[in-house]
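lol forgot to send this yesterday, sorry. struct tokens for the thing we talked abt
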């Protein structure tokens, strides 16, 4: 808490006007600066060195200056310091008066778009009149200088500022200067003289220079030949030889993680892993069946979902073609003429252009809905026997016909 002094506010203000410093007043009275500030705030006096108003300040113009005279003087001299010297005060006091009357300070306010446009137009006029060219330009350095080409001796003119010791007049002279100044040890890429080295592959001697000092081969062919097989730095012994467990044939194959058995062909693997030799073999989980085509005995799992068994792909192809196919239907392939586009469109409109199994719309199907015969009889064109289905559901009804026939009959009924 700042302590209270045994003097009045007027005495503190008088000391401040005499010493013009809060610090000096505090040292004279033997107190802190905060105490002096509190006395000045209670008296309503503003510190003259402060540039902006404070909330505790009651009267910022304690000197009782004529504000209109201050403004008129500032517009004449265009300087805060000169105006302050004329009235015997500090420049922040003059700045406060200008801010109160919204008068912009010269060189202080940010120019608006209009002033920027005016300045750019002024520069354009000065440049067009020739007042910003040549010696009148603020960055004038004396114009072009006459120098001599360092290669051919021709006199040339160039602007000052080029640091080159040997100026050139053309690209040809520049190339000659580079070949002379940047050759051999003078080059910034120089890494030593040329060396005569023997190729590690063929033994042929060849020369290598600066950046290629790490070369060990005379050509890429020798490099590729030398790094083949056991000479390669990443050689790990090559592909090991394996023995087929089924037929005993030797072959080369890389080792796979977790692999314990190796077979030369896929057929050997199938022969070896059938029956009790299979790693997943369970005695109670298998049964003996016969091939439907050739009658060969087979071993299959009891939980197999297949209802027909074949010993090979050939038997399966023969046993599932023609009348032996599970989807074979002994019916005419062509639809009658009355099964027209108009009839199909009537069925789709009746069903609301929606699939009667999954509810998919014709827009979601991305094509027209199919019209399905419930009893699978193409000649039966009764509207009660026809139903609109999407492409996916129409494909499903090709299999398990008795099941889908009962299901669709219930939907229609």
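and heres what i got for the seq, position by position
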């Amino acid at each position: 808490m700042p302590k209270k002094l045994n003097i009045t506010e007027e005495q503190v203000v008088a000391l401040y006007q005499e010493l013009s410093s809060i610090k000096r007043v505090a040292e004279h009275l033997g107190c802190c600066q905060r105490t002096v500030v509190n006395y000045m705030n209670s008296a309503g006096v503003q510190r003259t060195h402060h540039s902006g108003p404070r909330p505790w300040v009651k009267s910022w113009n304690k000197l009782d200056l004529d504000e209109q005279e201050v403004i008129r003087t500032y517009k004449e001299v265009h300087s805060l310091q000169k105006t302050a010297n004329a009235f015997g005060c500090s420049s922040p006091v003059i700045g406060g008066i200008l801010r109160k009357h919204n008068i912009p300070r010269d060189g202080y306010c940010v120019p608006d778009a209009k002033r920027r446009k005016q300045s750019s137009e002024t520069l354009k006029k000065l440049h067009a009149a020739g007042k910003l060219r040549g010696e009148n330009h603020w960055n004038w350095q004396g114009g072009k200088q006459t120098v001599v080409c360092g290669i051919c001796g021709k006199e040339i003119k160039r602007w000052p500022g080029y640091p080159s010791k040997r100026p050139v007049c053309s690209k040809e002279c520049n190339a000659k200067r580079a070949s002379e100044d940047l050759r051999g040890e003078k080059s910034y890429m120089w890494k030593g003289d040329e060396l005569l080295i023997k190729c590690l592959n063929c033994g042929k001697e060849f020369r290598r220079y600066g950046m290629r000092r790490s070369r060990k081969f005379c050509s890429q062919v020798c490099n590729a030949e030398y790094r083949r097989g056991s000479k390669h730095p990443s050689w790990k012994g090559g592909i090991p030889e394996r023995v087929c467990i089924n037929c005993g044939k030797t072959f080369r194959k890389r080792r796979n993680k977790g692999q314990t058995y190796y077979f030369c062909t896929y057929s050997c693997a199938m022969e070896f892993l059938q029956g009790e030799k299979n790693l997943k073999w369970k005695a109670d989980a298998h049964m003996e069946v016969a091939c439907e085509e050739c009658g060969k005995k087979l071993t299959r799992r009891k939980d197999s979902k297949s209802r027909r068994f074949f010993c090979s792909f050939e038997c399966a192809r023969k046993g599932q073609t023609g009348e032996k196919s599970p989807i074979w239907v002994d019916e005419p392939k062509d639809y009658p003429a009355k099964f027209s586009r108009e009839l199909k469109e009537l069925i789709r409109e009746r069903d609301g252009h929606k699939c009667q199994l999954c509810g998919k719309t014709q827009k979601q199907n991305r094509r027209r809905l199919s019209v399905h015969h419930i009893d699978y009889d193409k000649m039966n064109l009764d509207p009660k026997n026809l139903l609109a289905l999407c492409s996916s559901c129409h494909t499903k009804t090709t299999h398990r016909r008795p099941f889908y026939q009962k299901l669709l009959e219930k939907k229609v009924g």
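Residues 195-229 form one domain. anyway ping me if u want another try
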